[in-house]
Structures are given as structure tokens and as C-alpha cells.
Amino acid sequence: MKGSVEKFDFKATRIRKLPPYLFAEIDRMKEEATASGIDVIDLGVGDPDLTPPKAVIETLIHSAQDNDAHHYASYTGLPRLRQAFAGWFETRFGIKVDPDEEVLPLLGSKEGVGHIFLAITDPGDEILVPDPGYPVYTAGAILAGAIPKYFPLRMENGFLPDIDELRSLISPHTKMLWLNYPSNPTTALATMDIFEEIVNLANEHGILVCQDAAYSEIVFDGKKAISLLQAPGAIDVGIEFHSLSKTFCMPGWRVGFAVGNAKAISCLAKVKTNLDSGIFLPVQDAAITALLKCEGDTGKRCRVFENRRSRFVSGLKEIGWDVPLPPATFYIWAPIPGGYDSMGFAAHLLEEAGIVCTPGIGFGKHGEGFVRMSLTMPDDRLEVAIERIKDMQII
Ligand SMILES: Cc1ncc(COP(=O)(O)O)c(C=O)c1O
Description:
By secondary structure, this protein is α/β, with parallel strands linked by helices. The chain is about 45% helix and about 15% strand.
């Protein structure tokens, strides 16, 4: 039985304050195109099409057959999972962390990114958020009653923050600063200089730096992403979020971890003990297999994205769309050719070519002028996409 939507309005003020969903029109157009039989190529979603390593799936199956595997798990994860995270982190970044005090398993990194606001901020606190940036930083702040203050990431700055601009945004109410490198949507990599400057700034003002490293292992051309915790003094002011979703192509499994400042970790753990009941034990076992045994698989998957990136970007260049070669992530952050805003261009691309992309404005005001395209499609589909864009003759 369905009641009248109008009768009661149960909506909390914090829900009203969330930004409007900008992509409703694109979603509607996509549904319409699909329903009318158009072969839609969806380059909108950041959901890897590649499968997780075989050993990970085998561990899950094996572990799920254990009768003891189906109980509530510990809030803070199995000690051997925390040790595996700490071991992976040390091998990868050369930084030793305490698996009990400085590591916290998460139900996917988004869960930690969203909940840390409840752990650290009070209503009215200010949060420095990158623009363009992953929308969850804004949503997390608003749901906790905090106030997002945006700092621009500009192409001419390599999509890195301008430290003077950041400094000018800091007030006595500033509690937290968000970074995301490798960056979604800009694809930029951080430099150690910028991490060091931000850690110094945070130490000066008592601000927690949250660095979202979900794409840390999808980096190309022989480069490696750095960790915020490699910057001297970062452990006093920093926490970093890692994810198995992109690293091991396991987005549906919901596993990630936070690593860094022990106080921040324990506050986040406190929120989590009140809201969730841990990760399914077989998923924890499978995550341990991924972390301890599947480094080579990560590299293989990364090379698939790297090859797609190179082919797609050179294909677009050949037809006259000069998009920068992304150094990391599985996205293309493309300046829009002549005359369109990002919503208009995305609509046009869908109408004329049956291609879905994400309008840059969805990532913030400074995302205007760009669209994001995901490389989570096989080569032959990306080639069809290029042909269709060519036929549009927009470039
Ligand atoms: C920048 C960024 N951070 C975090 C996440 C969340 O990843 P997960 O919750 O799957 O670990 C995403 C997902 O797309 C993302 O783009």
C-alpha cells in the first residue's frame, strides 16, 4: 500500500541541505535512450569492469564454508586483517604503522570517508574541501552539521591546491582538510612538496588532514603514488583512506581501511562500533589474500587501464579533441570543446552519440568546462565511442 507522498514531510534539515542531484536529467536521457534500443556506451560510472584476482574469490568460497564464518565480526576487524593492511602499507610506502592503534578496517573507503565527519567535527565546524572533488566530502560535512569551504584545483596548477589560498580559508573553526590524490576527477598526482606544505599548515592550526587514496595503485608510466604519511609530521595530523575496490577490482565487496593518527582512528572506530558490526569474515579472509598474495594482479589490472588510457587519448587526439594524458586513475578529465557547458555537452554526447559521460559541474563549480569519462569498458567499446564522437563532428 502506498501512502500519499504529500501527507507528512519527514525530511530532516540536514537532508534538505544536501546539494541537489545534478544528474537526474542525464539519467532520464540514458534510460530513455536504452529503452528505445540505442546501444548506450556508459562512460559515466567509476566501477571497474575487470574481475578480482582468482585467489581472492577462492578464499571467499573456502572461508564461507566454515560454519563459524557467519557470526558477527569484530568491530575493528580480525587482528590478522589489520596486520595485513599494516604490512601492505609498509611494503608499499615504507612506513611502519601500529596495526592495533593506527589501522582501522572499513566497509569500503566511502564508509570511513562519510563517517569520519561524525567522529571529528561538531556542528558549525568548517571543512576545507577540494573543488572539483568527490561529492562525499560535501555530503559527509553537511550530514554532520559542518560547513564545507571549497578550495579550487586549477589545471594551470596541476590540479594541486594553492597553499596561500588554503591559508586564507583557514579560520578558528577549521577542523579538517580533504585531499584526494590520485585525484578523482582530475586524475592528478600529488607531490611530496605539497603534502609537506599541507602537513605543516595543519600542524600550525591543529587541523586533521584526510587524504583519500582510493586510486593509489592505478598510476601509469612507471610512476607510483606517494602517501600523505610519508611527509614528516603527518602522523600527528593525518589520516589516509585506502580501498580494495580499485586496487584489486573489488568494488562490490566493500573493503577498505583507514591508516594514520591514532586519536583520529580511535574516534572513527567509536562511531563505527555504534553503527556497524564489522566486515563479513570470509570477506576479511579474502582481503588478506589480496593484500598478501596478489600484488602482481594489481599491476596487471593497472596495465590494462594504462593501455586503454593511451589508446583512448590518442584516438581522441586523432579526431582533434586534445585531451591531456591522465597520469593516474581510470578517468579522462577532458576540457570541453567549444561553446558548451558541461551539462549541455554531456546531454549532446548522449543524444548524438549514445555516450554517457559525467558533467564536470557535478564535482563542483571548478569542474565546469570539463567532462569525466571512465575507462571501465573494453577496448572495442572505447573504439566505437571514438568513432561515434568523430561522426558528431563537434571538434
Ligand atoms: C575519490 C574516491 N574515494 C572513495 C571512493 C569510494 O570507494 P570505495 O568505497 O569503494 O572504497 C571512490 C569511489 O568511486 C572515489 O572515487
